[in-house]
Amino acid sequence: MDGPTLVTGATGTLGRPLVDRLLAEGTAVRVMSRRPRRADDDRPYAWAVCDLASGEGLRAAVEGAATIVHCATNARNDVATTRRLVDAARRAGGPHLVYISIVGVDRVPFFYYEAKLAAERLVEESGLPWTILRATQFHDLVATMTLAQRRLPVALVPAGLRFQPVEVTEVAGRLAELARDAPAGRVPDMGGPEVRDARDLAASALRAAGRRRRIVPVRLPGKAYRAYRAGGHLAPGRTVGTVTFEEYLERRAKAGRL
Ligand SMILES: NC(=O)c1ccc[n+]([C@@H]2O[C@H](COP(=O)([O-])OP(=O)(O)OC[C@H]3O[C@@H](n4cnc5c(N)ncnc54)[C@H](OP(=O)(O)O)[C@@H]3O)[C@@H](O)[C@H]2O)c1
């Protein structure tokens, strides 16, 4: 099928570098967003205003797309929005649907992960040609967990948790490759280069931001947290990303974004 690659969630943390990568490779890109295109945006992509929650604009957004990379997410309705996208894609002739999911969605009983797992099932059973990549947490998310606590005199971290953060531009690169390739089903997970203690990561983020705070580990109740503590969200055998958390922080600091 000829036609552009539609990127849902194209304005998000992952979508932005993905669009950059696709454009750099010469792929025709159609961006999906709920917002209208800014008047000063002259980048070489098409823009489709669409709200996956209501379905408004969806038919035009998917029309003629050869591939759809589904990065849009919203904690409240990922299953319904993915179902709507799948139905529209089927009616539009069956493009290749590439879905980004999270390592451990089948191991950690956290409501957001349960929705991602249900969305994976929808993609797998859609009848469309499909590819699913699961990634670990992006560096941005792990850094934000600490740096967003601006007003607290201490930095709270989840006790006993480890993370394996991955550089989002590397995930975007892998997705671009998957979007270009033939549908591959569920591909091997993508994790960052290091598994590190949450406390240690928080200390690095605070240091990079020049903030002095006492780090206070907090033990949370519940089965989701237990599964996180057991490392259900980690992929230690899949240290595919190469950019470390320290390198990410250094780049952000240099760009004045800490
Ligand atoms: N963050 C992580 O650490 C991580 C790790 C592994 C996998 N993932 C997965 O990667 C994907 C992208 O995550 P992200 O961190 O880049 O998300 P994000 O920054 O929160 O971006 C979410 C995007 O979804 C779009 N969106 C939300 N509701 C929508 C709706 N009703 N209709 C159309 N578009 C809608 C938003 O676009 P507009 O506001 O422009 O409409 C926005 O571009 C998600 O599926 C997430 O589960 C994330």
Automatic annotation (TrEMBL):
InterPro entries: ComplexI_NDUFA9_subunit, NAD(P)-bd_dom, NAD(P)-bd_dom_sf. Residues 9-140 form the NAD(P)-binding domain. This is NAD(P)H-binding protein. It comes from Streptomyces enissocaesilis.
